[in-house]
């Protein structure tokens, strides 16, 4: 039987709200597993909801393999990040353009909130400028 597309008006894959709610109950009773639509907008992918937090979609889209490989020292010098910050970034194995919005281990590397926010801002500026054509001398 072909799978019906999600219907926002009925709250499920075709049928009525009652049908979608019974599927939701069935999914809940099996721990969210199976191929039923569990009425949480993740069911369109089939099966249970993925609760693993890796990176958010925006951060994933921010990572772009076509970004130029700019040396960390050049990045830090350009965005006025001092040598202590550079050393911490090296320890993290950070490369300019890496998706870091959801990195929550920054304190483990010795960052304070203000310095980590400075790194995030510099990295986002780097991504925007690289996409706009700056940093061409580092493109491969």
TrEMBL record:
Basic and acidic residues bias spans: 16-26
Upper lineage: Eukaryota, Fungi, Dikarya, Basidiomycota, Agaricomycotina
Region of interest: Disordered: 1-49
Compositionally biased tracts (Polar residues): 1-10, 27-41
Protein name: Uncharacterized protein
Protein origin, superkingdom: Eukaryota
């Amino acid at each position: 039987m072909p799978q019906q597309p999600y219907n926002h008006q009925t709250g499920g894959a075709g049928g009525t709200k009652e049908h979608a709610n019974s599927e939701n109950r069935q999914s809940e009773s099996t721990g969210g597993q199976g191929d039923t639509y569990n009425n949480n907008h993740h069911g369109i992918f089939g099966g249970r909801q993925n609760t693993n937090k890796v990176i958010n979609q925006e951060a994933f889209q921010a990572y772009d393999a076509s970004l130029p490989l700019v040396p960390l020292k050049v990045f830090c010098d350009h965005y006025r990040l001092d040598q202590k910050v550079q050393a911490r970034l090296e320890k993290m194995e950070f490369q300019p353009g890496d998706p870091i919005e959801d990195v929550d281990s920054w304190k483990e590397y010795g960052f304070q909130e203000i310095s980590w926010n400075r790194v995030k801002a510099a990295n986002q500026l780097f991504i925007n400028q690289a996409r706009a054509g700056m940093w061409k001398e580092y493109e491969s």
